[in-house]
Amino acid sequence: VSAGNGCGHTLLTPHSGTLSSKNYPGTYPNHTMCCWQLQAPLGTSLLLAFGDVDLEPSEHCAHSSLLLADPQTGTAYGPYCRNSVPSAPLLVTNSSTVTVLFNSTSHRSGRGLLLSYATSQHPERVYRGGWMAGSPDPPLTMCFSVYCPAGCKDIHGDIWGNPSQGYRDTSVLCKAAVHAGVIADELGGQVTLSREKGITLYESAFANGLRSKRGSLSEKRLVFHKVCCLLSPACDDVLEVVAFNASSWWHEVNALGQDRAWVAERAALSTTGHSWAAEPGAEAAWLELDLGTRRNVTGIITKGSSEQHNYYVTSYHISSSRDGRNWRPYRGSSGQEDKVFEGNADSQGEVSNTFIPPMVARYIR
């Protein structure tokens, strides 16, 4: 939990999380405070990675400070500010509970703070801000693994590239992992990647709620590897749709009185010309895909119809069924409420969304 008027971007889960001061990386406000209570499962301990601690210097950090307390052992860490920084980028505690307290009085400068944490179940390399802690960079093409905490999607920093090309090595690593669909931002998790030779141009893409940037040549690039695909190459296959169905479709009549049906079968991504469209004014419209047999479905790609009409879907829900009668809404990794997927912003580009976890179903709506 977090409380106070100085809290910035915060996502806390039992196994990992990310937190920052208000306005980060802009100057943090005057006369503000935030208190975060971190609670890991019993039997585990917390590891805190300092991504950035830039608080205006003062004697004994009296004007602005970061203080960490372990109530189980009575241990305190800090106070920290610009002239009293943490001695190491990774703090290993012996407790499953840590209180993080940030406060400020009057000041002129300072980005504030960015922290991430994980539990002792993931001790090898905990991602922190724009870089990693725990070991030196691996050589080119060597696969390595890092743990990305929950909450990286909305931290400050850019990514260049896309899942098929890879990402410029200057990209924020765990943010790129969310874009690539190898982890869910709500949970974080272990990612496997390699540093490979850079390419001439990285193309922009919208995927999993993030827009990457178009970027030029870099010396190296980051390539994410889905472990399931290392074991079973078929998990990246494009699934064949045996039949399409829809709640309704639009019968367009043009100025010459000619009829054109925007039927469900035209929803296939490879279709040229017009697409599927629901009847105008229809509420709760749905499109249904029959995969012929139960399949492991790991994601979806959507695109609008650019022929004559600038049509596209901006957001949608997903439901699945094994028999075509009983439907289960997709709730994603949190499992608390139906997940709303962010769709297209124009009729031209393709948008990818990954299902984490995947679903096993014959029918998708």
Automatic annotation (TrEMBL):
Listed as disulfide-bonded, the cysteine pairs are C7-C34
**What membrane topology does this protein have?**
Single-pass type I membrane protein
Looking up CDD domains in the UniProt record yields: CUB, FA58C
- Domain (CUB) spans 7-120
Q: Which GO terms describe its molecular function?
A: signaling receptor activity
One Gene Ontology cellular component annotation held by this UniProt entry? plasma membrane
User: Which intervals hold domain LCCL?
Assistant: 128-222
Entry keyword set: Disulfide bond, Membrane, Phosphoprotein, Transmembrane, Transmembrane helix
Q: Say if the entry is tagged with keyword RNA-binding.
A: no
Q: Domain named F5/8 type C: which ranges?
A: 229-365
Q: What is this protein called?
A: DCBD1 protein
The gene coding this protein: Dcbld1_1
